[in-house]
Amino acid sequence: MRVKVSHTVDFENIPNVIRGLIQKSQDALDELSEIGEFVLSGDLGPACHSKLLRAISLVALLDEIYEDSEGITKAYLINSAAAMSADAQPPAQDTQEGKQGND
Questions:
Q1: Is 81 part of a structural domain of the chain?
Q2: Looking at the domain assignment, is residue 9 inside a domain?
Q3: Taking CA atoms, which of 42, 69, 83, 91 is between 20 and 30 Å from 50?
Q4: pLDDT tens, residue by residue, 57-90
């Protein structure tokens, strides 16, 4: 059984988290390629069946990785835009201070 777990990372570390997920997907894709080569070699015995079952689980893993990567990237972009927007705002002036100086 697989469960989704969340954890907290520093905002600046999010690109590294995404890169790690994508590297994991590359490893799964490499293994899928090897399975494909094995099946295409013509051996359709028990080993082939086992490898095809492994391929099914790798495809499910890839789906999870890309779904997680997309969600994390989306949140990162939204928060990056919000941070840039906040940085572009001029500092708020204290209106009370201005009124006291005129009295």
A1: no
A2: no
A3: 69
A4: 999 999 999 999 999 999 999 988 887 777 766 6
* pLDDT 10s digits, 18-48: 999 999 999 999 999 999 999 999 888 999 9
Cβ burial, residue 100 (10 Å; 0-12/13-18/19+):
exposed
8 Å CB contact between 51 and 39:
yes
Among the listed residues 67, 73, 58, the one whose alpha carbon sits nearest the alpha carbon of residue 19:
73
Say how many domains are in the chain: 1
Is 82 contained in some domain?
no
Does residue 36 lie within any of the structural domains? yes
Q: What is the DSSP letter of 22?
A: H
For residues 79 and 11, the answer to whether their CB atoms sit within 8 Å is yes
